[in-house]
């Protein structure tokens, strides 16, 4: 029995070393899997970003023509309205100036409606 104890202790020590190696390998495996997962996630994020960027550029390109067309239409409409306003101004300015001068120059003195005549 005495000779069996050192051998069983040796067996236990070897088993402990083996278990320690297995645990260390499992930790390394876990760390490697985490690194791989991060790398894969980064790659997927980059691919997704590129796809969305291309989608946005395509959307922007397809709507760029309509923006220019709308701007051209607005510019034309603005020019037409500006010409109409200028024509109205040129047509009406003499009459407006005459009315203003008549109001300022031709004063008719009258008593205010709230003022009553006092009879003496």
TrEMBL record:
Pfam families: V-ATPase_G
Complexes and interactors: V-ATPase is a heteromultimeric enzyme made up of two complexes: the ATP-hydrolytic V1 complex and the proton translocation V0 complex.
UniProt name for this protein: V-type proton ATPase subunit G
Positions in coiled-coil regions: 12-54
Entry annotated with the keyword Ion transport: yes
Family classification: Belongs to the V-ATPase G subunit family.
Keyword Ion transport among record annotations: yes
Biological role stated in the UniProt entry: Subunit of the V1 complex of vacuolar(H+)-ATPase (V-ATPase), a multisubunit enzyme composed of a peripheral complex (V1) that hydrolyzes ATP and a membrane integral complex (V0) that translocates protons. V-ATPase is responsible for acidifying and maintaining the pH of intracellular compartments and in some cell types, is targeted to the plasma membrane, where it is responsible for acidifying the extracellular environment.
Entry's Gene Ontology cellular component terms: vacuolar proton-transporting V-type ATPase, V1 domain
Source organism: Cristinia sonorae
Any GO molecular function: ATP hydrolysis activity
Keywords, alphabetical: Coiled coil, Hydrogen ion transport, Ion transport, Transport
InterPro entries to which the protein is assigned, alphabetical: V-ATPase_G (IPR005124)
Highest taxon listed in the record's lineage: Eukaryota
């Amino acid at each position: 029995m005495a000779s069996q104890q050192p051998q069983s202790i040796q067996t236990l020590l070897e088993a402990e070393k083996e278990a320690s190696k297995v645990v260390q390998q499992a930790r390394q495996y876990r760390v490697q899997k985490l690194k791989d997962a991060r790398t894969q996630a980064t790659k997927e994020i980059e691919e997704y970003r590129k796809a969305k960027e291309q989608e946005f550029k395509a959307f922007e390109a397809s709507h760029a023509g309509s923006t220019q067309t709308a701007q051209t239409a607005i510019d034309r409409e603005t020019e037409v309205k500006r010409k109409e306003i200028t024509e109205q101004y040129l047509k009406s300015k003499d009459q407006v100036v005459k009315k203003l001068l008549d109001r300022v120059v031709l004063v008719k003195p009258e008593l205010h409606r709230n003022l009553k005549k006092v009879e003496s």
